[in-house]
Design a protein that fits this description.
Layout: H1 20-34, E1 51-56, H2 62-73, E2 77-82, H3 94-103, E3 108-113, H4 118-123, E4 130-135, H5 141-155, E5 162-166, H6 173-184, E6 188-192, E7 208-210, H7 213-218, E8 222-225, H8 241-248, H9 252-255, E9 263-265, H10 278-281, H11 288-307
Parallel strand pairs: 1-2, 1-3, 3-4, 5-6, 5-8, 6-7, 8-9
The protein binds phosphoric acid mono(formamide)ester.
Length: 319
Protein backbone atom coordinates (compact mmCIF):
# COMPACT_ATOMS: atom_id res chain seq x y z
CA UNK A 1 0.00 0.00 0.00
CA UNK A 2 1.29 3.45 -0.90
CA UNK A 3 -1.29 5.52 0.91
CA UNK A 4 0.84 7.60 3.30
CA UNK A 5 3.60 7.82 0.70
CA UNK A 6 1.17 9.68 -1.59
CA UNK A 7 -0.19 11.89 1.21
CA UNK A 8 1.70 15.17 1.56
CA UNK A 9 -0.48 17.34 3.80
CA UNK A 10 0.44 18.19 7.37
CA UNK A 11 -2.92 19.76 8.29
CA UNK A 12 -6.55 18.99 7.44
CA UNK A 13 -8.40 22.29 7.28
CA UNK A 14 -11.13 21.61 4.71
CA UNK A 15 -12.27 19.49 1.78
CA UNK A 16 -12.30 22.51 -0.54
CA UNK A 17 -8.53 22.24 -1.03
CA UNK A 18 -8.36 18.42 -1.33
CA UNK A 19 -8.31 16.62 -4.68
CA UNK A 20 -10.47 13.57 -5.43
CA UNK A 21 -7.31 11.45 -5.12
CA UNK A 22 -6.55 12.82 -1.64
CA UNK A 23 -10.12 12.14 -0.48
CA UNK A 24 -9.82 8.60 -1.86
CA UNK A 25 -6.51 8.07 -0.01
CA UNK A 26 -8.24 8.99 3.28
CA UNK A 27 -11.21 6.72 2.55
CA UNK A 28 -9.00 3.77 1.50
CA UNK A 29 -6.93 4.23 4.67
CA UNK A 30 -10.14 4.40 6.74
CA UNK A 31 -11.26 1.09 5.19
CA UNK A 32 -8.01 -0.51 6.35
CA UNK A 33 -8.61 0.72 9.87
CA UNK A 34 -12.31 -0.26 9.83
CA UNK A 35 -11.22 -3.85 9.20
CA UNK A 36 -9.89 -3.91 12.79
CA UNK A 37 -13.23 -3.02 14.37
CA UNK A 38 -14.44 -6.62 14.63
CA UNK A 39 -11.16 -7.87 16.09
CA UNK A 40 -10.78 -8.62 19.78
CA UNK A 41 -7.58 -6.52 19.80
CA UNK A 42 -8.69 -3.28 18.16
CA UNK A 43 -5.55 -1.25 18.85
CA UNK A 44 -2.80 -0.75 16.29
CA UNK A 45 0.59 0.78 17.18
CA UNK A 46 0.54 3.46 14.45
CA UNK A 47 0.76 6.49 16.81
CA UNK A 48 2.38 4.81 19.81
CA UNK A 49 4.34 7.36 21.82
CA UNK A 50 2.48 10.34 20.28
CA UNK A 51 0.20 12.71 22.17
CA UNK A 52 -2.98 14.03 20.56
CA UNK A 53 -4.40 17.23 22.10
CA UNK A 54 -8.09 17.95 21.64
CA UNK A 55 -8.92 21.67 21.82
CA UNK A 56 -12.71 21.88 21.79
CA UNK A 57 -13.95 25.42 22.24
CA UNK A 58 -17.52 24.57 21.13
CA UNK A 59 -19.79 21.73 22.35
CA UNK A 60 -19.44 18.29 20.73
CA UNK A 61 -20.47 14.71 21.44
CA UNK A 62 -19.78 12.63 18.32
CA UNK A 63 -16.70 14.37 16.94
CA UNK A 64 -14.83 14.65 20.22
CA UNK A 65 -15.51 11.07 21.32
CA UNK A 66 -14.79 9.69 17.83
CA UNK A 67 -11.43 11.50 17.69
CA UNK A 68 -10.58 10.26 21.19
CA UNK A 69 -11.53 6.65 20.42
CA UNK A 70 -9.66 6.89 17.11
CA UNK A 71 -6.50 8.27 18.72
CA UNK A 72 -6.57 5.58 21.42
CA UNK A 73 -7.11 2.84 18.81
CA UNK A 74 -3.92 4.19 17.17
CA UNK A 75 -2.19 3.82 20.59
CA UNK A 76 -1.73 7.58 21.06
CA UNK A 77 -2.15 9.35 24.40
CA UNK A 78 -5.00 11.85 24.41
CA UNK A 79 -5.45 15.08 26.37
CA UNK A 80 -8.56 17.25 26.07
CA UNK A 81 -9.01 20.95 26.76
CA UNK A 82 -12.54 22.36 26.76
CA UNK A 83 -13.42 26.03 26.34
CA UNK A 84 -15.23 26.13 29.65
CA UNK A 85 -12.11 25.08 31.60
CA UNK A 86 -9.28 26.61 29.54
CA UNK A 87 -7.19 29.68 30.43
CA UNK A 88 -8.83 31.45 27.50
CA UNK A 89 -11.41 32.31 30.18
CA UNK A 90 -8.57 34.31 31.84
CA UNK A 91 -7.71 36.21 28.67
CA UNK A 92 -5.16 33.94 26.97
CA UNK A 93 -5.22 34.20 23.17
CA UNK A 94 -5.95 31.23 20.92
CA UNK A 95 -2.43 31.44 19.49
CA UNK A 96 -0.84 31.37 22.97
CA UNK A 97 -3.07 28.46 24.00
CA UNK A 98 -1.94 26.47 20.96
CA UNK A 99 1.75 27.31 21.41
CA UNK A 100 1.51 26.20 25.05
CA UNK A 101 -0.17 22.93 24.05
CA UNK A 102 2.70 22.36 21.60
CA UNK A 103 5.26 23.14 24.34
CA UNK A 104 3.49 20.59 26.55
CA UNK A 105 4.65 17.94 24.03
CA UNK A 106 1.50 17.51 21.96
CA UNK A 107 2.21 16.05 18.52
CA UNK A 108 -1.10 17.11 16.95
CA UNK A 109 -4.03 19.41 17.73
CA UNK A 110 -7.65 18.48 16.95
CA UNK A 111 -9.58 21.69 17.07
CA UNK A 112 -13.21 22.84 17.17
CA UNK A 113 -13.93 26.55 17.22
CA UNK A 114 -16.90 28.83 16.62
CA UNK A 115 -14.86 31.11 14.32
CA UNK A 116 -14.47 30.18 10.66
CA UNK A 117 -10.76 30.19 9.83
CA UNK A 118 -9.48 29.50 13.36
CA UNK A 119 -7.70 26.20 12.41
CA UNK A 120 -6.10 27.76 9.33
CA UNK A 121 -4.91 30.68 11.48
CA UNK A 122 -3.31 28.35 14.03
CA UNK A 123 -1.70 26.21 11.33
CA UNK A 124 0.41 29.26 10.44
CA UNK A 125 1.95 29.45 13.94
CA UNK A 126 2.41 25.91 15.27
CA UNK A 127 4.80 23.25 13.97
CA UNK A 128 2.46 20.31 14.60
CA UNK A 129 -0.52 19.14 12.49
CA UNK A 130 -3.84 20.94 13.02
CA UNK A 131 -6.99 18.95 12.25
CA UNK A 132 -10.19 20.96 11.85
CA UNK A 133 -13.01 19.37 13.87
CA UNK A 134 -15.46 22.10 12.80
CA UNK A 135 -14.87 25.86 12.46
CA UNK A 136 -17.95 28.06 12.59
CA UNK A 137 -20.00 27.78 9.41
CA UNK A 138 -16.87 27.14 7.30
CA UNK A 139 -16.03 23.39 7.20
CA UNK A 140 -16.27 20.13 9.13
CA UNK A 141 -13.96 18.03 6.92
CA UNK A 142 -13.99 14.78 8.90
CA UNK A 143 -17.82 14.87 8.91
CA UNK A 144 -17.79 15.31 5.13
CA UNK A 145 -15.34 12.40 4.85
CA UNK A 146 -17.34 10.07 7.06
CA UNK A 147 -20.48 10.96 5.11
CA UNK A 148 -18.69 10.12 1.85
CA UNK A 149 -17.38 6.88 3.38
CA UNK A 150 -20.91 5.90 4.46
CA UNK A 151 -22.36 6.69 1.03
CA UNK A 152 -19.60 4.69 -0.68
CA UNK A 153 -20.31 1.77 1.66
CA UNK A 154 -23.95 1.85 0.52
CA UNK A 155 -23.52 2.53 -3.20
CA UNK A 156 -19.97 1.42 -4.13
CA UNK A 157 -19.44 4.55 -6.22
CA UNK A 158 -20.87 8.08 -6.06
CA UNK A 159 -20.51 8.73 -9.77
CA UNK A 160 -23.96 9.81 -10.98
CA UNK A 161 -25.58 9.64 -7.53
CA UNK A 162 -27.78 12.51 -6.39
CA UNK A 163 -27.53 13.59 -2.76
CA UNK A 164 -29.99 16.13 -1.33
CA UNK A 165 -28.95 18.16 1.69
CA UNK A 166 -32.06 19.52 3.39
CA UNK A 167 -32.27 22.20 6.06
CA UNK A 168 -30.16 25.00 7.44
CA UNK A 169 -27.53 25.20 4.70
CA UNK A 170 -26.64 28.85 5.33
CA UNK A 171 -25.09 28.20 8.74
CA UNK A 172 -23.85 24.65 8.12
CA UNK A 173 -20.18 23.69 7.96
CA UNK A 174 -21.34 20.10 7.33
CA UNK A 175 -23.15 21.23 4.17
CA UNK A 176 -20.08 23.07 2.90
CA UNK A 177 -17.72 20.12 3.45
CA UNK A 178 -20.22 17.78 1.78
CA UNK A 179 -20.71 20.14 -1.16
CA UNK A 180 -16.94 20.05 -1.82
CA UNK A 181 -16.39 16.37 -1.01
CA UNK A 182 -19.38 14.73 -2.68
CA UNK A 183 -19.03 16.65 -5.94
CA UNK A 184 -15.34 15.74 -6.15
CA UNK A 185 -16.34 12.07 -5.80
CA UNK A 186 -18.75 12.36 -8.76
CA UNK A 187 -22.11 12.95 -7.04
CA UNK A 188 -24.52 15.73 -7.87
CA UNK A 189 -25.66 17.73 -4.86
CA UNK A 190 -29.05 19.36 -4.39
CA UNK A 191 -29.63 21.86 -1.59
CA UNK A 192 -33.20 22.14 -0.31
CA UNK A 193 -35.00 24.14 2.35
CA UNK A 194 -36.50 27.59 2.83
CA UNK A 195 -34.99 30.30 0.62
CA UNK A 196 -33.85 32.21 3.72
CA UNK A 197 -31.61 29.26 4.67
CA UNK A 198 -30.66 28.14 1.13
CA UNK A 199 -29.46 31.20 -0.80
CA UNK A 200 -29.40 31.06 -4.60
CA UNK A 201 -25.71 32.07 -4.43
CA UNK A 202 -24.80 28.45 -3.49
CA UNK A 203 -25.37 27.58 -7.17
CA UNK A 204 -21.92 29.13 -7.77
CA UNK A 205 -20.48 26.04 -6.02
CA UNK A 206 -21.92 23.80 -8.74
CA UNK A 207 -24.96 22.52 -6.82
CA UNK A 208 -28.69 22.59 -7.58
CA UNK A 209 -30.90 24.69 -5.31
CA UNK A 210 -34.50 23.57 -4.89
CA UNK A 211 -37.27 25.08 -2.77
CA UNK A 212 -39.90 22.46 -3.70
CA UNK A 213 -39.32 19.53 -1.36
CA UNK A 214 -40.96 16.88 -3.56
CA UNK A 215 -38.95 18.01 -6.56
CA UNK A 216 -35.77 17.81 -4.44
CA UNK A 217 -36.46 14.33 -3.09
CA UNK A 218 -37.89 12.36 -6.02
CA UNK A 219 -34.59 11.69 -7.82
CA UNK A 220 -32.40 11.49 -4.71
CA UNK A 221 -30.31 8.48 -3.74
CA UNK A 222 -29.78 9.93 -0.26
CA UNK A 223 -31.13 12.76 1.83
CA UNK A 224 -28.96 14.38 4.47
CA UNK A 225 -30.95 16.27 7.10
CA UNK A 226 -29.47 19.25 8.92
CA UNK A 227 -30.74 20.70 12.17
CA UNK A 228 -31.53 24.39 12.57
CA UNK A 229 -28.36 25.98 13.98
CA UNK A 230 -29.89 28.42 16.46
CA UNK A 231 -26.45 29.15 17.96
CA UNK A 232 -25.24 30.74 14.70
CA UNK A 233 -28.41 32.61 13.71
CA UNK A 234 -28.59 36.24 14.75
CA UNK A 235 -32.05 36.81 13.28
CA UNK A 236 -35.14 34.70 12.59
CA UNK A 237 -35.07 32.95 9.22
CA UNK A 238 -38.57 31.37 9.33
CA UNK A 239 -41.73 32.03 11.35
CA UNK A 240 -41.41 29.18 13.87
CA UNK A 241 -39.96 25.69 14.34
CA UNK A 242 -43.42 24.17 13.88
CA UNK A 243 -43.76 26.06 10.59
CA UNK A 244 -40.36 24.70 9.49
CA UNK A 245 -41.43 21.14 10.42
CA UNK A 246 -44.75 21.56 8.59
CA UNK A 247 -43.04 22.67 5.37
CA UNK A 248 -39.65 20.87 5.41
CA UNK A 249 -39.58 18.22 8.16
CA UNK A 250 -38.88 14.72 6.81
CA UNK A 251 -41.81 12.43 7.64
CA UNK A 252 -43.04 9.09 6.36
CA UNK A 253 -45.02 10.54 3.48
CA UNK A 254 -42.17 12.75 2.28
CA UNK A 255 -39.55 10.03 2.61
CA UNK A 256 -41.71 7.86 0.29
CA UNK A 257 -40.91 10.39 -2.46
CA UNK A 258 -37.24 9.28 -2.39
CA UNK A 259 -35.85 6.65 -4.80
CA UNK A 260 -36.56 3.05 -3.77
CA UNK A 261 -33.17 2.25 -2.20
CA UNK A 262 -32.44 5.75 -0.91
CA UNK A 263 -30.83 6.23 2.48
CA UNK A 264 -31.48 8.74 5.28
CA UNK A 265 -28.48 10.56 6.77
CA UNK A 266 -27.97 13.12 9.54
CA UNK A 267 -24.67 14.33 11.03
CA UNK A 268 -26.29 14.76 14.46
CA UNK A 269 -27.29 16.04 16.86
CA UNK A 270 -30.84 15.16 15.76
CA UNK A 271 -33.77 17.31 16.81
CA UNK A 272 -36.44 14.60 16.67
CA UNK A 273 -39.82 15.91 15.59
CA UNK A 274 -38.30 19.06 14.05
CA UNK A 275 -36.21 18.35 10.92
CA UNK A 276 -36.84 14.58 11.09
CA UNK A 277 -39.67 12.44 12.49
CA UNK A 278 -38.54 9.92 15.07
CA UNK A 279 -39.72 6.91 13.04
CA UNK A 280 -37.75 8.12 10.01
CA UNK A 281 -34.58 8.60 12.10
CA UNK A 282 -34.93 4.99 13.28
CA UNK A 283 -36.12 3.50 9.95
CA UNK A 284 -34.28 0.56 8.34
CA UNK A 285 -32.89 2.84 5.61
CA UNK A 286 -31.48 5.31 8.18
CA UNK A 287 -27.67 5.09 8.33
CA UNK A 288 -27.29 7.76 11.00
CA UNK A 289 -25.53 5.51 13.53
CA UNK A 290 -23.39 3.91 10.79
CA UNK A 291 -22.15 7.43 10.06
CA UNK A 292 -21.10 7.80 13.70
CA UNK A 293 -19.15 4.51 13.69
CA UNK A 294 -17.51 5.30 10.36
CA UNK A 295 -16.34 8.55 11.96
CA UNK A 296 -13.88 6.56 14.07
CA UNK A 297 -12.25 4.93 11.02
CA UNK A 298 -12.08 8.18 9.07
CA UNK A 299 -10.49 10.03 12.00
CA UNK A 300 -7.96 7.23 12.49
CA UNK A 301 -7.05 7.64 8.82
CA UNK A 302 -6.75 11.43 8.99
CA UNK A 303 -4.56 11.37 12.11
CA UNK A 304 -2.41 8.54 10.74
CA UNK A 305 -1.87 10.25 7.37
CA UNK A 306 -1.11 13.72 8.74
CA UNK A 307 1.44 12.23 11.16
CA UNK A 308 3.04 10.00 8.50
CA UNK A 309 2.93 12.20 5.40
CA UNK A 310 5.34 11.20 2.62
CA UNK A 311 6.15 8.08 4.64
CA UNK A 312 7.39 4.95 2.92
CA UNK A 313 6.80 2.92 6.07
CA UNK A 314 3.43 1.18 5.77
CA UNK A 315 3.91 -1.58 8.31
CA UNK A 316 1.37 -0.25 10.80
CA UNK A 317 -1.56 -0.23 8.39
CA UNK A 318 -3.84 -3.24 8.98
CA UNK A 319 -4.27 -5.58 6.02
N1 LIG B 1 -21.78 15.86 13.79
C1 LIG B 1 -21.16 16.55 14.78
O1 LIG B 1 -20.28 17.36 14.56
O2 LIG B 1 -21.65 16.25 16.03
P1 LIG B 1 -21.03 16.86 17.37
O3 LIG B 1 -21.32 18.33 17.37
O4 LIG B 1 -21.74 16.13 18.49
O5 LIG B 1 -19.56 16.60 17.37
Amino acid sequence: MELAQNWTRKHLIGLEELSREEIEIIIDTARSFKSTFEREQKKVPALKGKTVAQLFLEPSTRTRIAFEVAAKRLSADVVTLLGSTSSQKKGETLKDTALNIQSLSADMIIMRHSAAGAPLYLSQYVDIPIINAGDGAHEHPTQGLLDAYTLLDCFGSLDGKRITILGDILFSRVARSNIWGLQKLGASVCLAGPSTLVPESFRELGVDVCYDLKEALVDSDAVMLLRIQHERQTSTHFPSLSEYTRLYGLNKQRSSWLKKDAIIMHPGPINRGVEIDSDIADAPNSVILNQVTNGIAVRMAVMYLCMNRNSRVQAELPR
